[in-house]
Amino acid sequence: EKTDAREVGLQVFNNFQMIHPEFSFVLDNDLKHKTIVKMYRNHLEQVLIILMDNAVKYSQERKEVHMTISKNSRYVEIVVQDFGEGISQDNLDKVFNRFYRVDKARSRDKGGNGLGLSIARRLIEGYHGKLSVESVIGQGSVFRISLPLSSEQEESQTIKDTEKN
Ligand code: ATP
Q: How far is ligand 1, taken at its centre, from the CA of residue 106, in Å?
């Protein structure tokens, strides 16, 4: 259950780019090398698909999605940012609840049932990671995944850091 987070991130990004030619996707990839997290590949892939799919579903006007992949000595961070309808402060915590949808009537045509984000958060927390959101209504949303690096990766990172100093 070791996965290269960088590779999965790039793959999901490229797939969305192909499926949604009407969107402009921007990738900010800070990672030059493999970045191993202790997680099933399918699980990370599923989480990223949920976030990217939402970013596309809830951006009617400004069709732009940014993905940023970075890390520090202990965590990998993958950020998915859109410039769509955004989420009000009241609803920010609730979007991770099962079956919660901000606008039930209006978003029915988008075919969701309010499970995506609850599944995504459960998966990430299952690996001692965090999934959080910041958003401004009318301006867009930023979803942030942070996942601990596998201990192996952490060790090699520490060695590299020591070599640098
Ligand atoms: P599905 O179960 O198919 O994912 P869903 O999109 O309704 O359906 P969630 O992914 O759990 O379910 O999202 C819950 C609610 O949070 C959505 O109905 C939507 O109102 C809001 N939401 C999620 N992502 C975004 C986003 N990027 N921008 C604005 N609102 C969002």
A: 12
Q: Reduced to 3 states, what is the DSSP secondary structure of residue 4? A: strand
Distance CA 29, CA 143 (A): 16
Calculate the CA 52 to chain-centre distance. 7
d(Cα 135, Cα 7) in Å, to the nearest integer? 27
Counting from 1 in the atom list of ligand 1, the atom nearest the Cα of 96 is 11
Ligand 1, atom 4: closest residue by C-alpha: 116
Q: Which residue, 123, 32, 13, 27, is CA-closest to 66?
A: 27
Q: For 9-66, how does the pLDDT look when each residue is reduced to its tens digit (9 = 90+)?
A: 999 999 999 999 999 999 999 998 899 999 999 999 999 999 999 999 999 999 999 9
Round to whole Å and give the CA distance between 84 and 89: 15
Q: What pTM did the predictor assign? A: 0.91
